[in-house]
Amino acid sequence: MPITDFLERNAKIYPNDVALVEINPEKQPDKNVTWREYSLIETAAESDKYRREITWRDFDIKANRFANLLFTRGVKRGDKIAILLMNCLEWLPIYFGILKTGAIVVPMNYRYSSDEIKYCLDLADVRMLVFGPEFIERIDNIQSEITAVDNLFFVGKREDTPEYADNYADMTYYCSSTVPPVELSDEDDGAIYFSSGTTGFPKAILHKHKALVTACYVEQKHHSQTKDDVFLCIPPLYHTGAKMHWFGSLVVGGRAVLLRGVKPQWVLDAVSDEKASIVWLLVPWIQDILDAIDRGDIDLSKLNLDQWRLTHAGAQPVPPSLIKRWKSIFPKHDYDTNYGLSESIGPGCVHLGVENIHKVGAIGKAGYLWKTAILDENQKPVKPGEVGELAVFGDGVMKCYYKNPEATAEILKDGWLLTGDMAKEDEDGFIYLVDRKKDVIISGGENLYPVQIEDHLRAFDKIKDVAVIGLPDKRLGEIATAIIEIKEGENCTEEEINEFCLTLPKYKRPRKIIFAKVPRNPTGKIEKPKLREIYCGGSLVEAQITG
Fold first, then answer.
1. Which residue, of 192, 210, 228, is where some domain finishes?
2. How many domains is the chain built from?
3. For residue 198, which of 42, 49, 188, 441 sits 20 to 30 Å off, Cα-Cα?
4. Domain end: 168, 185, 210, which one?
């Protein structure tokens, strides 16, 4: 069944139940707004509200109206339609409206510059673009160059709509709300997601509808969502991680809350006010919440958190010390982690499971409907305990890198996806990430895995965040260098860090310490290419290495 069937089923079975809530904590709280078929003026003005919600029936109506609008513009099966929006109540109805036409939906990173937006639009052969007010200036810069994009729809107030775009609310209001007469199959192309671009400009990852549906079943199986669960979604919807976790709510018709902000108080207020039971947090947000609690900035006694049953984290290696700290504050929460990548339709191809908290630090075993292997450079399985490249197999594996057969051939081997992550398996079959293949540091002939050094350093109570990279060295080739971000209000010296690292084997100890902020992308991953650019190309690094 296509993924759109879940939405249409929920609209029939739970028409008046709330499907989505949007919380914008920067706005002044006021009465709730239910997104129904109001006048155009009211619809266009609702983006200024603190809280908006939409029922399953109206979710489906909005998706149908947008699909039928696209038909009036000549959209046909296989056309590519991009979404460039911040998280908002419109995002998912637009996504499903595109799918209902048989077109391919192309979510785009909201941090892209004008040049990156143009590059991705060209790469994916995008014909239409839906964008929000935050992107007007960036689209203005390239509007005359993206001539292949023949329709642009603006999601925002009518008076802010650029002259080269149509207003989404105006255009969809009078369109038919009937279900489009399009037959979809599992083998139809469904979505193009972009890689994080850590080795240059992003690659376009093409997924079939089968992969999207697989993500639904995997997520619901792993986290046992029920109709009564409320999922708090904070990460960006353009990324596979956030959306695929929400797919578990879609399967059961559960409510989800889109929170537009990551401040610790906002997160916990949303959990309390919306009675969220499942929350997915990135590592930096977990750290920020714990630090705020430690400082006394948050009074947990004033919050209603009893219904919060599951915290799960992912998108990067999760330090065991961080989860132990979290469990000391929230001992009644189940904890889980998932591993995945956009090429495997996001999280779930490896899964820890709440029953395996004793294995915290591992990413788990092969997820529901998935197979895993750890391979050497010849794609042969390594022995338990040995480090190799993690490979995964299942219906969630991408079809290809769109228009890039060479890159596709490098990563797909007989249906197996080579993840680029180095890993090892313990005696119980649990998989532990060691590091990204390209991030391994070779120092004096020894392979150093930065994640292992980072995990050790994060246990130091003065450290908020840390990234370990290799810097060039004439004698050793590379040396492990730790970029360390200290907690607010703390003072720390290089001598303290070196002393803390004495329990590491000597060859694993960082040889250089740099106190600086650790940059992360919207999905929480450390931006190591940016760090290498900063510290490998200037006089600062030269002075540190030679001095």
1. 210
2. 2
3. 188
4. 210
CA dist., res. 67 & res. 104, Å (int): 12
d(CA 278, CA 517): 30
Contact 408, 418 (CB under 8 A): no
> 171-217, pLDDT tens digit by residue?
998 899 999 999 999 999 999 999 865 445 789 999 999 999 999 99
The first and second tokens of residue 150, run together, are 């023949």
The size of the chain, in residues, is 547
In sequence order, what are the beta bridge partners of 107? 83
Average predicted confidence (pLDDT) for the chain: 88
Q: Which of 165, 164, 146, 168 is nearest to 156 (CA)?
A: 168
Q: What is the CATH number of the domain that holds 125?
A: 3.40.50.12780
HSE-up (13 A, CA, CB side) for residue 535: 29
Q: At a CB cut-off of 8 Å and minimum separation 6, what does 318 contact?
A: 283, 337, 360, 361
Joined tokens for residue 58 = 């109206």
Q: 261 and 294 in contact (C-beta within 8 Å)?
A: no
Instruction: Report if residue 226 sits inside a domain.
Output: no
How would you label 103-138 residue by residue, b for 16+ Cβ within 10 Å and e otherwise?
bbbbbbbbebebebbbbbbebbbbbbbbbbbebbeb
Round to whole Å and give the CA distance between 128 and 151: 5
Continuous segment of H or E residues that includes residue 227: none
- Please report, for the chain, how many H helices and E strands are present, in that order: 17, 28
Give the CB-side neighbour count of residue 242, counting CA atoms within 13 A.
Answer: 24
Give CA angle at 508 (506, 513), nearest 5°.
Answer: 100
Q: What is the pTM of this model?
A: 0.83
Q: Which helix (H) or strand (E) holds 486?
A: strand 477-486
Q: In whole angstroms, what is the distance from residue 525 CA to residue 505 CA?
A: 26
**Distance between CA atoms of 393 and 295, rounded to whole angstroms?**
45
Q: Is residue 255 part of a domain?
A: no
3-state SS, residue 513: strand
Alpha-carbon gap, residue 311 to 83, rounded angstroms: 29
Beta strands (DSSP E) in 13-50 are 18-23, 33-34
pLDDT confidence of residue 84: 97
Residue 463 lies in a domain: yes
Q: Give the domain CATH number at 460.
A: 3.30.300.30
Query: SS3 sequence, 420-482?
Result: EEEEEECCCCCEEEEEEHHHCEEECCEEECHHHHHHHHHCCCCEEEEEEEEEEECCCEEEEEE
Q: Phi-psi bin for 102: left (phi > 0), alpha (psi -120 to 50), beta?
A: left
Domain range enclosing 162:
34-210
Residue 445 lies in a domain: yes
Handedness of CA 358, 364, 369, 373 (dihedral sign): negative
Start-end of H helices in 124-263: 136-142, 168-173, 209-223, 240-252
What percent of the chain is modeled with pLDDT above 90?
65
